[in-house]
Design brief:
Elements: H1 2-55, H2 64-86, H3 104-115, H4 119-136, H5 140-149, H6 153-161, H7 166-193, H8 196-204, H9 207-213, H10 220-245, H11 253-265
Length: 266
């Protein structure tokens, strides 16, 4: 009887010991597994953090892509507005800042013509010159959009940190020659359509105007094209300054972020 009791106690202790060892093994395995899982999650955490940075770029400041996108959007808007303002009836003629007057060389003689009752002819000639410019201007929009596709990040940075009309100046450099080429046949056709050529020829029959012109009639197309470009870029510069400085003109989130950020850094 005593032997049997001793034997049962020994077996019980053995079972408990075996059970404890199993529990220790399980705990050790679980600890190692947790440590391994923690280590494995480390690169995942880094990926998650990177994704959050991409999704929330404000913490990283302005990205290159965002700067270019914002500037292209601003230029597209200022171009659209400038063309809309100038490429319509009276867009040039009733805007004193860009109204096309007779060439400087002829203005003194034009005053004399007004004094002898020929003011109506002078006025009609100036009106026709402005109408030619108004008809040519809409062709600029596509040329400006083409110039946008060629913008580099370096161009964008210079525009963003440049003066109030840096974007307009970029367009002058990038598209003036192409615009002049595109405008010339339109202006020439418009001049005939609205009677500029005929009115100019009649004025040139006056001896005073003929002497003052000294061959200026041959360059009239070029003069109107140049004044059309000047007026278009002037209005575009005004539109650009609005977008840079007036929150009300920053009509999209990216415009507010790009130009608001640029203004705070200056």
């Amino acid at each position: 009887m005593l032997y049997n009791m001793v034997e049962k106690q020994t077996v019980g202790r053995s079972v408990i010991s075996s059970h404890n060892k199993k529990m220790e093994s399980i705990l050790i395995f679980a600890t190692l597994a947790l440590l391994g899982a923690s280590a494995a999650q480390s690169p995942l955490d880094q990926i998650k953090k990177k994704a959050q940075e991409i999704m929330h770029p404000k913490s990283q400041g302005l990205t290159d892509d965002k700067i270019i996108t914002g500037l292209k959007q601003a230029l597209s808007i200022s171009t659209k507005n400038a063309v809309a303002q100038t490429g319509r009836v009276d867009g040039f003629f009733k805007n004193e800042a860009i109204k096309i007057l007779l060439p400087q060389k002829l203005q003194a003689m034009a005053k004399g013509l007004r004094m002898i009752g020929m003011g109506a002819q002078v006025d009609q000639l100036e009106l026709g010159m402005n109408r030619a410019a108004e008809q040519a201007t809409p062709a600029a929009r596509q040329i400006f959009l083409n110039a946008l596709t060629q913008m580099t990040f370096q161009d964008a940075r210079q525009i963003l940190t440049g003066g109030g009309t840096a974007a307009t100046d970029y367009f002058k450099r990038a598209s003036s020659d192409q615009l002049a080429t595109a405008f010339k046949p339109i202006v020439h056709k418009s001049m005939h359509n609205v009677g500029v050529v005929q009115r100019y020829d009649r004025l040139m029959k006056n001896p005073m105007m003929a002497r003052a012109a000294s061959g200026e009639d041959v360059k009239l197309d070029d003069y109107i094209v140049g004044k059309t470009l000047d007026g278009l870029f002037y209005v575009m510069g005004q539109e650009e300054q609005k977008i840079r400085t007036d929150p009300a003109a920053q009509t999209t989130a990216i415009l507010r972020e790009v130009f608001g950020k640029a203004a705070s850094e200056q």
